[in-house]
Amino acid sequence: MARRSVSAAEPPPAAPRPFWTIARRDTAAGFLFVAPQLAGTLVFMLVPLVLVFWYSLHEWNVLANTFRYTGARNYELLSSDPSLPGVLLASALFSAGLVVLNMSLALLLAVLLNQKLAGIAVFRTLFFSPVVVSLVAWTIVWGFLLQHNGGINGTLRLLGIEGPNWLRTPATAMLSVIVVQVFKNVGLNMVLFLAALQGVPRELYEAARIDGATRWRQFRRITLPLISPTILLTSIITIVGSLQVFAQIAVLTQGGPGVSTTVLVYYLYQQTFQFHRFGYGSTLAILLFAIVALLTLAQWQLRKRFVFHER
Amino acid sequence: MNGEISARMKVALYGLLCVLLIPFVFPTWWMLTSSLKPISDIFVFPPELFPTHPDWSSYAQVFTVQPFAQQYWNSAWIAAVVTAATLAISSMAGYAFARIRFPGANALFIVVLTGLLIPSEVTIVPLFRMFLKLGWVNTHWPLVLIPVFGAPSVFATFVMRQFFIALPAELEEAARVDGLGRFRIFRTIALPLARPALASVAIFTFLHSWNLYLEPIVFLSTPSKFTLPQALTQYTDAYGGPMWNIQLAAATLTALPVLIVFVLAQKQFVEGLAHTGLKG
Fold first, then answer.
1. How confident is the model at residue A172 (pLDDT cuts 50, 70, 90)?
2. DSSP H/E element including B96
3. Contact at 8 Å (CB) between A279 and A70?
4. Short-list B12, B48, B17, B280, CA closest to A126
5. What are phi and psi of A61, to 5 degrees?
């Protein structure tokens, strides 16, 4: 290897100190490397965030071409909006239902798939497969199965049960939307839990078995405490994701019946792009931002505390 | 949990797994098979799981009802460009934040990270106004620019940075002593080592773009400009009722290529998405 021996401690003699020192080169390279990302974040995220707050102080109707400053009027409207309690309730129900069902099913599947069985990898692949199926395609198929004369009710009829019109009945519409979403994405959390389960030291189980602990007791006293950081973090990630659900609602229920499945993002979309209330839509966006930002910050705090294993 | 399992337990376990598998596998299978049935057979219950007389006519109709080939191309090139651009931008920024010491690096990283607090739904109104003023509504620019510079790319930068931080510094030292420039080191040493992280980011970014729904329905109004998710919902008859067999054929065409790639590269998909998995 033809290597010139030019080390930092021993500069070439008789040469003037160059302007481009290593430190300066690094600074220039650093800024150049991060420039596209930084500019993008500013132009497409931070400036729009400031703007959306500014717009939320305006009455702005695109069709009527009105844009005037109204101060906190939109926030007063927000607090007295008769639909809002229903919307927030729908969001809370969706997020809570999704996180509970998703976590329980993910944990159950992870425990089952953590057994040493022939062909277990095939099962893992199959449980994971909905994650990569196009979201709208998956939703359309379930929309068909959940119809009054669809496959779900057909199956129930075999058992002698007359099923409801799942997506058109207030009591079952929300449940349906949640379940469709759980089956779509539970594979992600399943894989995370599987990794966490495999990180639990085996000796602990052996010691417990010698002490005569039952499997259930081992699960409760050893497994659950040791994977609880993973459970907590995936819960928050799942909740934050659930607050952004849109396509499923738009395809399956359009927020109905009534506002029973109108979650916050869908309401924001309706108010802004269907009713052309851009000012009020911005106010709803600020509300959404506050909720998501708080949850994400909580997630970061937890991540720090538990030293979550990213990779 | 890892104890010996009796034969009876094994049978019970397989049985339980198979039952649990139904809602995960049946919908996809039903979509594939029903797209090969005439509309009158789609409502037959119990459904025929292996169509004996496959009828491919719905696949022909997919392309006559809408400019589906054009829409497919729109989705494909947008996802490809978004993925390539995100890989370039996030690997460079992630590398710099992890590897290059320069003044203000930490502050700038925090600025970029705040992007993770801002979901794209929050900024859709100002972005709509911005693209309206630029005259780019009903073009593909918003669908490319918003993900490439928005939340998914910020997340990708975070993933890349975590990867480069864990990479041993010695690998670069020799090259630095040899006087290689930063960009050469990045391109010839760091980037080839980062393949697993790049694969994660690529898979995650591609699926994000492929599934994007809010931005297309906000920004696009001409069917020939639609992307696949939006196009799939447009297979309705004059009364707004869905044309099921055609819709399912289009859905199959949308889902199948990704599923095939997934089967071929399961490990990368599962690991990549589990590490970057954002959405619930």
1. very high
2. helix B68-99
3. yes
4. B17
5. -115, 115
- pLDDT bucket at A9, cuts 50 / 70 / 90: low
State whether the Cα torsion A34-A36-A39-A44 is positive or negative: negative
Angle, nearest 10°, between helix axes A84-113 and B7-34? 130
pLDDT at residue B279 is higher than 60: no
Specify the amino acid at residue A228.
S
- Asked if the structure places residue B30 within a domain, the reply is no
CB contacts, 8 Å: B25 with chain A:
126, 129
A-B CB pairs within 8 A amount to 317
Number of H helices, E strands in chain B: 16, 0
Q: Are B101 and A31 in contact (CB under 8 A)?
A: no
- A175 min Cα distance to partner chain B (Å): 15
- The complex scores an ipTM of 0.90
The helix/strand/coil state of B55 is coil
Confidence of residue B1 (pLDDT cuts 50, 70, 90): very low
The H-assigned helical ranges of chain A are 22-41, 47-55, 73-80, 84-113, 120-128, 135-145, 151-158, 170-198, 202-210, 215-218, 224-242, 247-252, 264-269, 278-306
Give the predicted TM-score (pTM) of the model.
Answer: 0.89
Q: Specify if B57 maps to a domain.
A: no
Mean pLDDT over each residue of chain A, to the nearest integer: 87
Q: How far apart are CA A302 and CA A5, in angstroms?
A: 49
| Residues 6+ away with beta carbon under 8 Å from B92 | A33, A34, A36, A37, B186
Query: Looking at residue B218, which CATH number applies to its domain?
Result: 1.10.3720.10
Record: contact A288-B213, CB cut-off 8 A: no
User: CA distances (Å), A246 to each of A115, A241, A270, B75, B204, in order?
Assistant: 36, 11, 11, 19, 18
The answer to whether residue A7 scores a pLDDT higher than 60 is: no
Which residues of B fall within a CB distance of 8 Å from A289?
117-119, 122
Q: What is the spatial distance between Cα B35 and Cα B253, in angstroms, rounded to a whole number?
A: 10
Sequence-ordered list of residues with C-beta below 8 angstroms from that of B137, at least 6 positions apart, any chain: B128, B131, B219
With CB atoms and an 8 Å threshold, state whether B124 touches A285: yes
Can you list the positions of beta strands (E) in B20-143?
A: none
Q: CA–CA separation, B250 vs B266, rounded Å? A: 24
Adjacent-strand bridge partners of B212: none
Residue of chain B whose Cα is closest to the Cα of A181: B280
Query: For chain B, percent helix, then strand, then coil, each to nearest 5?
Result: 75, 0, 25
List, in sequence order, every residue forming a beta bridge with B170; answer none if it has no partner.
Answer: none
C-alpha B134/C-alpha A44 separation (Å) is 14
Structure tokens at B57: 């006519």
Domain that holds residue B203: 69-276
Count Cβ atoms within 10 A of the Cβ of residue B123 and give its class: 0-12 exposed, 13-18 middle, 19 or more buried.
buried
Give the 3-state secondary structure of residue B153. Answer: helix
Number of domains, chain B: 1
- For domain A84-261, give the fold: MetI-like fold (1.10.3720)
* Partner residue opposite A185 with nearest CB, options B2, B10, B280: B280
Subunit contact B146:A293, Cβ cutoff 8 A: no
- Rounded to 5 degrees, what angle do the CA atoms B175, B181, B182 make? 90
